[in-house]
Design brief:
There is one protein chain. This protein is an alpha+beta fold. It folds into two domains: 163 residues, no CATH class; 127 residues, no CATH class. It has a four-stranded antiparallel beta sheet with strand order 1-2-7-4, sandwiched between helices. Helix 13 packs parallel to helix 15. Bound molecules: iron/sulfur cluster (2 copies). One iron/sulfur cluster binds next to helix 7.
Length: 359
């Protein structure tokens, strides 16, 4: 039985242990998420979630932790920074239309396993402090309002681009949660520090941030390149540029990311030189190479076909060359209708841009 008087010192110990274990921050919140729930329901009603049916299928379980795990009264949130050290400067990649841009979080190993294993260890350490208790660990795996919870736990505020950001660390971090039945003292909700800034809204290539805090996923390149299974809507193809897995523009322009630090986690270091690779090189990966080179990476979950689809669109946005046209034409001869339609679009784009440059 936990003595209530000990709860403040237990909370301090949990935060200290979390930092010793390699989390950069740790906070505690209660489970009252009415505002976030109202916001979520309106977002779903607007159909901004696109094909992400999992966002609505759990009803109130997402916004009411106690409905998901009975007796949960507090959530311990942790932050783990992921910006990979030595990665090629992002804008120099985005501005080179023959290069492939991959979101910074996906350049290294898949974060789910790294974070979950460490959270499990933290949960066990808490057991050493308090004795048997009820807990569940989450990393992006269940209906959990991780950003709203982390904001309540004081880890940062939800910016106008809808990511969580902190004054000390910007926004290049992952979040994880432990739902617990221990009535620990809650931390203070983070205050808001976007001010009048609109850099993320202005920088979004597809105008997906339709208003502050309102991201229409159906327009978002992250969603389109990762979650969206159908053809990339033609209206967004040019704006995709060379972004073949995710998009970081709204975070790259955020002034608070000046304060972010590279991660020391070797698991998040760049693999297979994915920070500095041409579109053509990746297009030439066959499925076996794709599976081998994306083993243990978040990229693998989109599968080879979506991977190729994204690269094909990006090739259509690149500078025309004999090699690119030959590669696309060869692929066209043995593609299904889905990829063939993207290839035809890209070949037409390249032809138009070549005609424009050499009338
Ligand atoms: S990830 Fe890219 S497309 Fe999506 S909101 Fe941010 S800038 Fe816009
Ligand atoms: S770019 Fe500006 S408005 Fe957008 S999240 Fe950062 S501080 Fe907020």
């Amino acid at each position: 039985m936990i003595n209530d008087h000990n709860l403040p010192s237990i909370a301090l110990s949990i935060k200290k242990i979390a930092k010793e274990m390699g989390f950069q921050d740790c906070g505690i919140s209660d489970t009252e998420l009415t505002d976030a729930e109202n916001f979520l329901f309106q977002w779903l009603k607007n159909k901004f979630h696109g094909e992400m049916d999992y966002m609505q299928k759990h009803g109130s379980k997402r916004s009411r932790p106690n409905d998901l795990i009975p007796d949960t009264c507090r959530v311990i949130s942790v932050r783990m920074d992921y910006f990979p050290p030595h990665a090629k400067e992002a804008w120099s990649v985005i501005n080179d239309n023959t290069a492939a841009f991959i979101s910074r979080y996906a350049l290294g190993r898949d974060y789910h396993k790294v974070l979950r294993n460490r959270l499990q260890k933290l949960a066990k350490k808490i057991e050493e402090l308090v004795g048997p208790y009820q807990y569940r660990v989450f990393v992006d795996s269940a209906p959990v309002m991780e950003k709203a919870i982390a904001e309540k736990a004081g880890l940062g505020w939800i910016g106008k681009h809808s990511n969580l950001l902190s004054r000390d660390a910007g926004s290049w971090f992952f979040l994880g949660e432990i739902y617990v039945d221990i009535p620990l003292p809650s931390d203070e909700t983070s205050s808001f520090h976007c001010g009048d800034c609109t850099s993320c809204i202005d920088a979004c290539p597809t105008n997906a941030i339709i208003a502050p805090f309102q991201v229409d996923a159906r327009r978002c390149i992250s969603y389109l390149t990762i979650e969206h299974k159908g053809p990339i809507p033609v209206e967004f193809r040019q704006a995709m540029g060379n972004r073949i897995y995710g998009c970081d523009d709204c975070q790259l322009v955020c002034p608070w990311n000046r304060f972010s630090e590279d991660t020391a986690e070797t698991d998040f270091s760049v693999r297979h030189q994915l920070d500095d690779v041409t579109l053509l090189e990746l297009f030439n990966w066959d499925e076996t190479t794709f599976l081998a080179n994306t083993e243990g990476s978040a990229i693998r979950r989109i599968g080879y076909e979506r991977w190729q689809r994204n690269i094909i669109v990006a090739l259509g946005n690149s500078t025309s060359s004999a090699e690119i046209i030959a590669a696309l034409t060869l692929k066209l001869s043995n593609s299904n209708d889905y990829l063939a339609e993207h290839i035809e679009w890209s070949l037409a784009q390249l032809k138009n841009s070549a005609t424009f440059q050499h009338p």
